[in-house]
Design brief:
Radius of gyration of chain C: 22 Å
Number of strands of chain A: 22
Distance between the termini of chain A: 35 Å
Oligomer: heterotrimer
Chains: A alpha/beta (about 525), B mainly alpha (about 350), C mainly alpha (about 375)
Strand order of the largest sheet of chain A: 6-7-8-3-9-10
Mean pLDDT of chain C: 85
Strand order of the largest sheet of chain C: 1-2
Low-confidence stretches of chain A: 1-15, 521-531
Chain lengths: ~525, ~350, ~375
């Protein structure tokens, strides 16, 4: 392992040193879009360099160019001042560039050691792996950067925070000099984020160069030595954290002044609409992952559920909307017991649901938009009589909906799969919001969307609340929960461990609860690592 | 104890089941070599499925691959026997024409697998459709050529002979029949046992195995660490093709010395079921293959050693066609009972698109 | 067929021709290419295998005989239609499975059981008046086929056992059951070979030429009913939704398990009706070797037609013609009838490799997918449907 930089040099103050990585005038075009337009970027040895931009601004494309996953149409990459051509990921790895992808590139059924070894195997002989040597090196590397890890644990059983550490170990095992992290904190609690930041700082001190991709302003202000902001494929500015602030960065990133928080106004909660009582739910493998949840959502309020992904939120939501049969407990809607009712019965009782994964649940991408807009109501009048469909009525209402919700589409008959992500989500929102409902369940409603679509969906949700609908919002983005919720419940290992007022909730307090479940659950925290 | 047994026998259905279990225990040791022979093409076919699907390529063309290689083995033997003579040159009655025929049948299996690999990996066609086409094409081409060739009533090159184990081993009490089962066999059956063990160890201990499993579960993750997903999948489908080819050669060169149209008779699909029931491991596939083969051999067992009592009356009264259908029925039942708990590799059947290096 | 939501009112003739070409260009090219490959196989096997004097024009002689046998005379044409009728129903059976994301390789077994059901009922009511006997025999065939389809359907719905394996196994079981019954309880006593009694009045009446039986109309009615079901009813919408995205179907309040069991049952009924047609229209009784290649030809028909109910008629006529003409080809050119299987498989091969064909022949703007088959493999290997 070579460390070209003297690590005692303060990274921000060494302009004469050749950058560890320089990208010059990178341009990458895809049919119909210029994903990267003359982007230049310098990363010095031992520097943490943040790349800030919205979803779709071109950050990931730029990093794919660096990692050999996409070939640039124009531009040059220099490592330690030497121009290089990076052919494929293997080439990038050989040159010391490693990437931690936003969606972890880990194989859940393989062990930590197998995941780290993959592609860079330590061999006992030309055929068989040397597991003992590999274990030794992994444990040692982990210790050096401050954590203990068991190489034999299956990755699928680790929490996301630990999976992230495995990703970093994977890079270090390959003697990475330049480490790219794509939205590494998206699914972490504030505490886990702090822990990862500590690891990153240690790596930087050790001489590694780090590219930190994010759209979270306060995070880049905290961790970065320098910040490069890109918008619509172009570099729009470079900043040093001490000389900028969130408003400045937000305006650079979005191109206009943005309200960082939605003005949600004051809620006027009325009677209880949804009442969940001692609900227990099993996952696909038969493990009880919701272990006695109690909660109430009132008309005219937004109840947000905060929690690290995988603490039973998905199963809870599926049980409430009827997609999953509870193992015990009660769900009532407006005072009526609806436990175990089918999705259709819940739909008819006035429950609307915007699912987390719009491609998997929300839409049939191969079907025309019009068919998707009646996906939950195709069987009733006016869309059908008996088993006979009324295509004219379906088309007529589709055109109305498209106009009302401003869905950008050439017509109602194009396949849903051809629309942009934002417009697909708008179509789901239109279908679910556009009717008389009592309860609206939103599961990760803005994941992967651009700021415009996020604002639109948040606005629509608040309008629904003000009109007296009860809203249940689940999100792994703590910021979204804090921004939107009138009350917040923190979910930890299958139970709601605390309920607090959305206006006064403290981010760190919520984060701590998300990570540990609070004092009375503290004993579980250690085993929570492998839960 | 006897009273208990008698009491159990007295309950109508339960009694029959109990008698049947007793009959199985008694009959399996003497027919065990037959069972293992029946299991050979199923286990080899199952391994074809294992190495292919562990890397993420569904292969339901096993049946067609087997059929093509069975035909090739037979026809090449027929063509070479008059030219090269048929003097055994080694153990197992191996002759030069037989050896060359075996090589030819493996080459054809490779070619057929290459077609499947190309269609499902490069063209990214639906893998089940691709496999089906291979099955239809193999049945068509072999049927067509077989009809043409059979007009001349050709003479076969013979088949591999069975090894006769020393009676000192096979007469050992309690374990003797196991020696007989494993050793009273031809070369392909014995190789199958060795290959199962080797493949099992390789899959879980070697670099190839680790990469195979990773590619079958999460090909993108494998590509990001520099593994060539496409190449690995091609290689695995081809290795699988060799196993299926060996299974086909077994049918026309070891089990029989002839070829009949559609002689695979669904074995490729039973092999697929064996793979699923065996949870995508070679040893598991062999175990399931033995189970299916046991029921396949039952018809023969009843012919030469029918059970006594009411069970015997019942079983000999059944038309023989029912016994022919029995292994297929057992396959369905076992598959339906096991499949929910047997989880396929996560990326099985999904064509992989390289994260475009354009 | 675009789903009926998309029906722009007026379309010019030019646009229509372009759309028609887009739909048929690929099958057309595939068929021509397959015939070329078939010719090569004939020539190569003549050279290497038969040892007859080499005739370079033999493929032409063979194809000419094939064509004349199928279309050269009124009787030949009727034979083509008679051969096509079960392929239409079998093709619909496979196609409607594709629409629901199911691969029904079991059409063969369902076909056999349908024929068995109608022969058992037909023999029992052989002396009844036809207007009673025929519906009873048909109903029995439908019922037997339905059972054969329901079994793999319910197994898939409840346990996730993939229908590709279970239906193939059922094909072999059907052969066994049929052979056992025909050589046992159903056998005509003292008959030298295993054969059942004749169905008598339950036989389909002849409506066209010498052999053209009612089954031809039944097949056409089947196309109309299935098209209507798929595109005009909510049931069809549910079938297509489950096929395209079962998770979304569940979310939409449908019941994928029930839809799968229902669709497989429907598949079984259609293939069973095909068997009924052959039995009541052609053979009138059953031998233990009863059985044709209908089940497997049906897969080819559905793929060639891209699961389009109307396209299935044309694909079935093509393959029906090949079967009808194969006899004359064997007589006139001494080419084994199995050549038809080879050509058929080659057509499918070119279809499945359609991206390659498209690049090779520069067929721009032509549909390439094999209909909605891209969802079949997804449920492979025990991902139980919820």
């Amino acid at each position: 392992m070579t460390h070209p930089a003297d690590s005692s040099l303060s990274p921000g103050l060494s302009p004469t040193l050749a950058p560890a990585l320089a990208m010059r005038g990178i341009t990458k075009r895809y049919p119909g879009v210029v994903a990267n337009d003359q982007i230049s970027l310098d990363v010095r040895p031992g520097e943490i360099h943040a790349l800030l931009g919205e979803n779709g601004a071109g950050k990931t494309t730029l990093m794919n160019v660096l990692y050999g996953l996409a070939r640039p149409d124009e531009g040059q990459i220099l490592l330690d001042g030497q121009p290089v051509r990076i052919e494929d990921p293997a080439d990038a790895i050989a040159r010391g560039i490693n990437m931690v992808h936003q969606h972890f590139m880990l194989v859940p059924v393989l062990s930590v050691a197998e995941n780290i070894l993959l592609g860079e195997e330590t061999m006992a002989n030309p055929i068989f792996l040397d597991r003992n040597e590999a274990h030794r090196r992994i444990v040692e590397l982990g210790r050096r950067f401050g954590f203990e890890i068991d190489p034999d644990v299956k990755v699928g059983s680790l929490s996301v925070g630990w999976q992230q550490r495995v990703e970093i170990l994977k890079a270090l095992y390959r003697r990475a000099r330049i480490l790219v992290l794509d939205e590494p904190t998206a699914v972490l609690t504030p505490q886990e984020t702090e822990e990862i930041f500590a690891v990153l700082r240690r790596l930087a001190q050790d001489g590694h160069s780090i590219v930190f991709i994010s759209h979270k302003l306060y995070e880049v202000l905290e961790i970065a030595d320098r910040i490069t902001v890109i918008r619509r494929g172009k570099v729009v500015g470079e900043r040093i954290p001490t000389e900028t602030n969130e408003d400045d960065l937000a305006e650079l990133m979005v191109g206009r002044e943005v309200q960082l928080t939605v003005d949600r106004g004051i809620s006027h909660p009325a009677g209880v609409v949804l009442e969940v009582d001692g609900l227990r739910v099993k996952d696909d493998r038969g493990n009880e992952v919701v272990r006695g949840v109690d909660l109430e959502v009132r008309a005219g309020e937004i109840f947000g559920i905060a929690g690290v992904a995988g603490n039973g939120q998905d199963e809870l939501v599926e049980a409430i909307v009827g997609l999953r049969r509870p193992a015990g407990g009660r769900v009532s809607l407006g005072g009526t017991d609806v436990t175990g009712r089918s999705p259709r019965a819940m739909n008819e009782a006035g429950v609307a649901y915007v699912p987390a994964d719009r491609h998997r649940f929300g839409l049939v991408l191969a079907f025309p938009l019009a068919d998707n807009l009646v996906l939950t109501s195709y069987y009733r009048r006016p869309y059908s009589r008996g088993i006979l469909r009324d295509d004219a009525a379906i088309l007529r209402d589709a055109e109305k909906t498209i106009e009302r919700f401003d869905i950008r589409t050439p017509s109602a008959t194009v396949k849903a799969g051809t629309l942009s992500g934002g417009n697909q989500q708008k179509a789901i929102v239109a279908r679910e919001f556009g009717r008389e409902i009592q309860l609206l369940v939103l599961d990760q409603p803005t994941r992967g969307l651009d700021v415009g679509s996020i604002e639109f969906i948040h606005r629509q949700a608040i309008d629904k609340r003000n009109a007296g609908t009860a809203l249940l919002l689940v999100s792994a983005e703590l910021d979204e929960i804090l921004e939107m919720s009138d009350r917040i419940g923190v979910m930890y290992r299958g139970t709601i461990v605390a309920v607090m007022d959305g206006r006064t909730a403290d981010k760190n307090e919520v984060g701590l609860l998300m990570a540990t479940g609070g004092a009375e659950h503290g004993a579980d925290a250690t085993e929570g690592r492998t839960a | 104890m006897d009273a208990l047994v008698n009491a159990l026998y007295a309950i109508p259905i339960v009694g029959l089941v109990f008698q049947f279990a007793g009959y199985l225990v008694a009959i399996i040791p003497p027919i065990s070599p037959i069972i293992l022979r029946g299991a050979t093409p199923l286990a080899l076919g199952g391994m074809c499925g294992v190495v292919s699907e562990r890397s993420g390529v569904v292969n339901i063309g096993i049946e067609g691959t087997m059929l093509a290689s069975a035909f090739t083995g037979w026809v090449v033997g027929v063509a070479l026997a008059p030219v090269l003579g048929s003097t055994p040159i080694a153990l197992f009655g191996i002759t030069l024409p037989l050896l060359l025929a075996l090589v030819a049948s493996l080459l054809v299996a490779l070619a057929v697998s290459y077609l499947h690999a190309w269609l499902s990996i490069t063209v990214r066609a639906d893998q089940i459709i691709s496999g089906t086409i291979i099955n239809i094409a193999a049945a068509g081409v072999t049927g067509y050529l077989n009809t043409l060739i059979s007009k001349n009533s050709p003479t076969s090159a013979g088949s591999f002979a069975l090894f006769t184990p020393p009676t000192a081993l096979t007469n050992l009490p309690i374990v003797g029949w196991l020696f007989n089962m494993v050793l009273n066999q031809g070369p392909i059956t014995m190789s199958m046992l060795v290959l199962v063990v080797i493949t099992q160890v390789m899959l879980f201990r070697s670099r190839w195995g680790l990469r195979t499993r990773a590619v079958g579960e999460h090909p993108r993750a494998a590509e990001t660490v520099g593994i060539d997903v496409i190449r690995l999948r091609y290689r695995n489908v081809l290795i699988g093709g060799l196993f299926a080819g060996l299974a086909g050669a077994y049918l026309s060169m070891e089990a029989t010395n002839s070829f009949q149209a559609n002689m695979t008779a669904g074995r490729g699909f039973i092999a697929l079921a064996a793979m699923i029931v065996g949870r995508w491991t070679p040893v598991g596939a062999l175990g399931a293959a033995l189970l299916f083969a046991t029921f396949q051999s039952l018809g023969q067992a009843i012919a030469f050693a029918p059970p006594g009592g009411e069970l015997g009356v019942l079983m000999t009264a059944m038309p023989s066609q029912i016994y022919d259908a029995l292994p297929y029925l057992v396959t369905i039942i076992v598959l339906a009972g096991v499949v929910g708990r047997s989880i396929a590799p996560a990326a099985d059947g999904q064509p992989y698109e390289r994260e475009s290096a354009t | 067929m675009t789903p009926p939501v998309a029906t722009p009112a007026g379309r010019s003739a030019g646009a229509f021709a372009r759309a028609a070409w887009a739909a048929i260009a690929l099958p057309f090219v595939a068929i021509v290419m397959a015939l070329v490959v078939g010719a090569l196989i004939i020539l190569v096997s003549e050279l290497l295998v038969t040892g007859r004097p080499f005739q370079p024009t033999l493929p032409l002689t063979a194809y000419q005989a094939l064509f004349v046998g199928a279309f050269g005379s009124f009787d030949g044409l009727v034979a083509t239609f008679v051969n096509a009728a079960p392929l239409v129903l079998g093709g619909l059976s496979v196609a409607i499975g594709f629409k629901a994301g199911l691969f029904n390789i079991g059409a063969q077994g369902q076909f056999l059981m349908g024929a068995l059901g109608s022969v058992m009922a037909g023999v029992a009511v052989a002396t009844w008046p036809p207007f009673l006997a025929i519906p009873i025999a048909v109903a029995a065939g439908l019922l037997a086929g339905a059972i054969m389809g329901f079994i793999p359907g319910i197994l898939k719905a409840l346990s996730g056992a993939h229908e590709v394996v279970t239906t193939i196994m059922l094909n072999y079981i059907a052969v066994g059951v049929l052979a056992a019954l025909v050589s046992g309880p159903l056998k005509v006593p003292r008959s030298p070979s295993p054969v059942t009694y004749d169905v008598g009045n339950a036989a389909y009446p002849i409506i066209l030429g010498r052999d053209g039986h009612l089954g031809i109309l039944v097949a056409l009615a089947g196309v109309a009913i299935i098209w209507w079901l798929l595109y005009r009813t909510t049931w069809g919408f549910e079938i297509r939704t489950v096929g395209a995205n079962p998770e979304a179907a569940r979310y939409a309040g449908m019941h994928p398990r029930a839809v799968i069991a229902f669709t497989m049952t429907l598949c079984g009924m259609l293939a069973g009706l095909a068997g009924t047609g052959v039995l009541l229209g052609v053979s009138h009784s059953m031998t233990s070797s009863f059985g044709t290649t209908v089940g497997f030809d049906s897969i080819a028909v559905a793929l060639l037609a891209r699961s389009n109910p109307v396209g299935i008629i044309f694909a079935a006529i093509l393959f029906g013609a090949m079967r009808a003409g194969a006899g004359l080809m064997q007589i006139q050119a001494q080419i084994p009838v199995e050549l038809v299987d080879v050509v058929q498989a080659t057509i499918l091969l070119f279809l499945v490799a359609s991206p390659v064909l498209r690049a090779l022949f520069r067929l721009r703007g032509v549909q390439t997918e094999l209909g909605s088959t891209d969802t079949i493999t997804r449920t492979y290997g025990g991902e139980a449907v919820r």
